[in-house]
Amino acid sequence: MDHVYQVLAWLSLFTYWVAIAAVTMRVVFKRRVVGVSLAWLMIIYIIPIGGIIAYLLFGELNLGKKRALRAEEMFEPFACWFKQLYNCPGHQPQLMKLHTKPIHDLCRNRLGIPALVGNSMTLQNTPQAVLRSLISDIQQAHRAIHLEFYIWHPGGLADEVATALILAAKRGVKVRLLLDSAGSMRFFRSHWPRLMQHAGIELTEALAVSPLRMFLRRLDIRQHRKIVVIDAQIAYTGSMNLVDPAFFKTDAGVGQWIDVMVRVTGPAVSVLNCIQAWDWEVETGQRYLPPVPECDATPADGDMDMIQVIPSGPGMPDEIIHQVLLISIYQARERLVITTPYFVPSEHLLHALISAAERGIEVHIVIPAKNDSVMVEWASRSFFAELLNAGVLIHRFNGGLLHTKSVVVDDTHCLIGTVNLDMRSLWLNFEVTLAVDNPLFTAQLAQLQQEYIKHATRIDPAKWRQRSLGHKFLEQCFYMFSPLL
Description:
Elements: H1 2-29, H2 34-46, H3 48-58, H4 65-83, H5 101-110, E1 120-124, H6 127-139, E2 144-149, H7 157-170, E3 174-180, H8 185-188, H9 192-199, E4 202-206, E5 227-230, E6 234-238, E7 257-258, E8 261-265, H10 268-284, E9 306-312, H11 320-331, E10 335-339, H12 347-358, E11 362-368, H13 374-381, H14 384-390, E12 393-397, E13 401-402, E14 406-409, E15 413-417, H15 423-427, E16 431-437, H16 439-454, E17 456-458, H17 461-465, H18 469-480
Parallel strand pairs: 2-3, 3-4, 7-13, 10-11, 11-12
Antiparallel strand pairs: 1-8, 2-5, 5-6, 6-8, 9-16, 10-14, 12-17, 14-15, 15-16
């Protein structure tokens, strides 16, 4: 019997060694960013069996066989749709400024999506303004309303939006609603799905979370986009989920969430509508390609504000928004202001920010003083010393959880959307951002950023260097796993 146990022990050890070797080879041959590979190897070796299971669940960008095949079949028809935008008078490449052209060329070559002029934009920076405006537009809708959000949390004005959608559906408006399964878990457990479906609203749960799917699809890939399109004429996008902050995560100890949304009219609306149609088809298999923008007239000379819509995520070109961020940072000549709730930059972004500060650019990073993610909070701190030494100004906002994702470059152009400055947003989730060349809109966003800074505490480099050894140790521990956060 002892001999049998000995054989079983050696067989178990050999099986474990083969599993470790196989996963290690898989990590090495994937040829990802070195930091990501090293972080996974650490997890695999430090947590023997759990590390292997974790890698099988979360280690690779696996959207699932059905969705992957569906996305592959969608490339050609959607590419043909985007190609039609080049015949629209809203496509005016000769009017592009020097800072606009590199981003446009990148998106044209990798996504097939051009920048378009002739748009009108309104910056909405309070939840009441956003939700009231959305309710008003829903009440005036005649044909179709398409929505997708990461989080829909019942309560307050969010319930008024739900009521407005139900009434719209009852009067014959076609309403399609796509919500992330994990982010909107509270919504799907509420009475609202039943009421909506009874009214005729098409409601789809994106990327359903289930133990049965864990080995078929990576469960932490999330639908993080926030898009609303009404009658193919009005669109909303930005950082805000469909929540009333007075009723959302009130016990988290971080204060109310601070967000912005952009209300857009013009040809860029059709591009956002097409992205929503892409997400709907990936999830349901149903195709609803929207009409291309009405292009029967050239935009007036005073209406040349340009928007480049940039989607990212599984099935789309890798790191596209990451590349746009790098281009924007390296183009800065005077001033760069970034707001983000989660700051865990890639090595390339970190070096770009340091390089900008070292060449004399005034670089500001505004983040929340309190974060709802402890791991992200400590990982973020691990980058502060290097940034502060280079001259980057880091501000910690005290008025709640600053959730606005924005970049203003030289007070002349900006990026705004759903993308956090962390690895999850840049490489994993479904996201969308707008590159905006609109001096008036950019000035409004820059002014809002300055309001954030007024309500923030700037980190003093000398005091930061005096933090405790225990804090430094925790920062470095979480820094080692930052590529996976």
